[in-house]
Structure formats: C-alpha cells, structure tokens
Amino acid sequence: MFDQQKPLHASVAQAFIRAIRRISGARPAIDEEGERTIVSQEQLAEDAGMARSSLTKLLKQDDAANPTLKSICQIANALGVPPAFLLMRDRDWKVLAAAVFTHEAARTDPRFNDFAKRLCTSKDHGPSASVQNGRELARLTNHLQELPAGADKMVRSNVEAQAYRIGATSAAPPLQQLHTSNPEYVPLLLTLCAAMGANFRD
Question: At residue 1, does pLDDT exceed 50?
Fold first, then answer.
C-alpha cells in the first residue's frame, strides 16, 4: 500500500518501522540446533548496541516514531543496510524503480547518449553544474517541460516547483568525487536523481 495521504513525518516513521520488521524478519539466525529462527528484538537491540526497551519503544510508536540519527545508523548497521534504506517509503521505492526504467529507456535516445558522453568528459560536477545538468537530463527524458512565454501562472508555479526538486535531487550525490574514479556513474546517477526529483511528492 502506498502511503500517499499521510504527512511526511508520519509516512517516513511508518516506513522506518516497516523496513526494520521486513529486514529483521528476512534475516534468520541459526539457533543451537541449527534451525533458522527470526531475529528477535532482543538480538537486534544487542546487535545495534542499544537497549531493547529503546528499540521496542521505537517500533511501537508507529507514525510517531522519532529516532535519532545515531539510532538509525546503529539499527541500519545491525541489519546490514545503508541507513537511507530504513527511511524510504513505499512510494519512494516506486519512484526509484520508475527512475531506473527512465534511464534504461533513455539509453536508446542518441540525444541522451551524446549528453551522457559530455557529462563523462566534463570536469565540472559541482552542485551548481549538477543542478543544470539534472534539469537538462529531465528535459531529455520528458520529466521537465519547457515553459512557453505566456504560460499560465499555475502551470508556471508547478513547473518551477518541479524544476527546483529536480535540481535539489541532482545536487545531492557527490558527483565531483565520483567522476574522478567512475565518470560513467555521473549520467546514471543524474538521470536517476532527476527522475526521482520530478516525481517526488512529500
């Protein structure tokens, strides 16, 4: 079920709890008899270096869960996943999957491939350049429309908000550092970020 009606904090809090339950339920331990058993809250709390009561409190708070960054990192480390995986809502995963499809479809477009080659050889991948490049990729993949000169105020407002989100998500990855060792990551990540920014809703 995609949690589209809940406020941002409540939907992320519930996603956090559901992710912990899904991952810990899928990560069986081996008991003394060699049988697979579900990891208990007690074991997870111990692995995370936190009191069981603290973990239980977090898991019972549902949409009011408000863990510290330290707790998120401790639990993520114990579960063996990046911390961000615990905070992604169902619809965020859906947007990520759609962004991957966007990249795969774009690879057949010569304009996209030309732009991707330019990104791989460009030396500037700082935040400002990433914003502009992400918006250009969003236009190439039809995630951002060009506004005509006399565009309606409401349409202009919606497109500008979308362009902002695309720019924000495009500036997030450390592309300058990644480009040094893996330049081919830049067009891939920018396309994913631009598509996710275009479709993000809080």
Answer: no
* Residue whose entry in the numeric block shows the structure tokens 């603290």: 54
Distance CA 103, CA 109 (A): 10
CA distances to 37, 48, 53, 81, 85 from 56, rounded to whole Å, are 19, 13, 5, 20, 20
Q: Which residue(s) pair with 29 in the sheet?
A: 37
Task: Measure Cα distances from 47 to 51, 78, 80, 176 in Å.
Answer: 10, 5, 11, 35
pTM of the model: 0.85
Cβ contact 175:182 at 8 Å: no
The dihedral over CA atoms of 84, 58, 11, 23, expressed in degrees to the nearest 10, equals 50
Q: Which CA distances in Å does 130 have to 60, 114, 145?
A: 40, 17, 18
